[in-house]
Amino acid sequence: MIEVYVKKRLQAFLLNVNFSEKGIIAITGKNGSGKSTLLNVIAGILKPDEGYVKLNNIDITNLPINKRNIVLVTPESYIPTLDLKKHLTWGAKLKGRKVDDKEIMELAKLLGVPDENKKVGNLSLGNKEKVSLVTAILTKPNLILVDEGFSNISEKEHFINIYVDLCKKNQIELIYVTQDTEDAKFSDHHYVMNNGSLHKVF
Predict the structure, then answer these.
(1) Distance from CA of residue 88 to its chain's centroid?
(2) What are the chain's domains?
(3) What's the CA gap between 120 and 15, in Å, rounded?
(4) Separation between Cα atoms, residue 174 and residue 139, nearest integer Å
(5) What is the mean pLDDT of each run of 10 residues along the chain (202 residues)?
(6) How far apart are alpha carbons 38 and 197 in whole angstroms?
(7) Smaller CB count within 10 Å for the chain: N or C?
């Protein structure tokens, strides 16, 4: 369960958001509408001017980023110098969680991660995003935030469908933001961001 009631002013822009949901949430909206700002507040990168963020009934508003058990994925959130396998286990190792090779291989195959041990920086844009997204699941956080992190993946709809299913199976909450409204059909809840405010579609 994610509960968010926050206000955040950035110069002339005001983010004013209030929602409470469980499961998979899609947020669509135009560039500059406040989608990324909201994710940065939830992740702890930005501090709200007022309000709170609660995850599973725990107030995380003032917790540092590394204590929130949240992973934020963007198209640039990969580590280019790590080879593929080390990248996939990087987040889990930070948390002291062991990941066996079988689990890595099964997830990588299911989500179409290439079976090659290149440096992640040498992969295609879509495969870089896949690596970041699989790394996030293997970290086993309470919440994954995806900021346009599906945008360069080929067969995107197929990938999102599987990714959403994996999050549900692993009891991971997921919020993903996108400009493509078609992507929202895989979510349990769809919101549209407009000028810093959320409007529920379903």
Answers:
(1) 15
(2) 2-200 (3.40.50.300)
(3) 35
(4) 14
(5) 98 98 98 97 98 98 96 95 91 82 88 88 95 95 98 95 97 97 97 98 97
(6) 10
(7) C
